[in-house]
Amino acid sequence: MVQLCVNGARTSADGAVVPLSPEAVADSVAEAVAAGATDVHVHPKTPCGRDTLSPRVLAATLEAIRARVPASVPVGVTTGAWAEPGPAARVARIRSWTALPDHASVNWHEPGAEEVAAALIERGVAVEAGIWSGTEGAALFRRSPLGPRVLRVLAEVTDPDPAAARDSAHALLARLGMAHGRPVLLHGEEGRAWPVLRLAGRLGLATRIGLEDTLRLPDGGRAASNAELVTAGTREWAAARRGHD
């Protein structure tokens, strides 16, 4: 599986290539799915470009995407603490959603992660457990009674040194252990994105790519679209997998 991470917490300051409005997001997602993405992770945005868990914005974003892509492509959203400060406020937002994503990511190191994940499960929304390197997320997740109920683990390498990305990824996977038997999606950001994606290929793990994780192609050139990143990502993942085999 190659998941598309559409836009992340990026803003217009990152360039016009980053889709922000529901219509721009839907166009970008449709192109990336045609290029090979099989799953979608998106950050719904307010009109001023800020991440939000607002039911109105979420519904508009999901409606726009689902009008453009097959129903077989799952669409997920963030529940990052920056989008709605305070665990209680995030839970309240989730309970107020009028349209539901197929899944939502929960960063396990953030305060209130268990409550947020429980609220999603109660509403029938699958949970992606976001486990960041350099945090207590892995240890907290291993102890979580909700661990066996999540859809998958998003193992995210945050080490700022690209040269150390692979070692950090191996260390993170070791800390996760059996991860409650749940599938693991391994990815990195910025300079770590491509080394970690190739490692995921070698290990046969799912991965993700998109403008949330990097604005650059493997050769360092600026990406023109999410579709271009997905095309490069599927190629790099497959080449790494063949090399392993």
Spatial separation of the terminal alpha carbons: 18 Å
Residue fraction in strands: 15-25%
Low-confidence blocks of residues: none
| Total beta strand runs | 8
Structural class: alpha/beta
- H/E series: EHEHEHEHEHEHEHEH
* Sheet with most strands: strand arrangement: 7-6-5-4-3-2-1-8
Pfam families: BKACE (PF05853)
Organism: Streptomyces rubrogriseus
Protein name: 3-keto-5-aminohexanoate cleavage protein
Can you describe this structure?
It is a single chain. The chain is built from eight helices and eight strands; from the N terminus they run E-H-E-H-E-H-E-H-E-H-E-H-E-H-E-H. It is of the alpha/beta class. It starts with a strand and ends with a helix. Helix 1 runs parallel beside helix 2 (55-66) and helix 1 runs parallel beside helix 8. Helices cover 38% and strands 16% of the residues. The relative contact order is 0.15. The model has no long low-confidence stretch (mean pLDDT 96). The protein has an eight-stranded parallel β-sheet. Strand 3, helix 3 (87-96) and strand 4 (103-107) form a beta-alpha-beta unit.
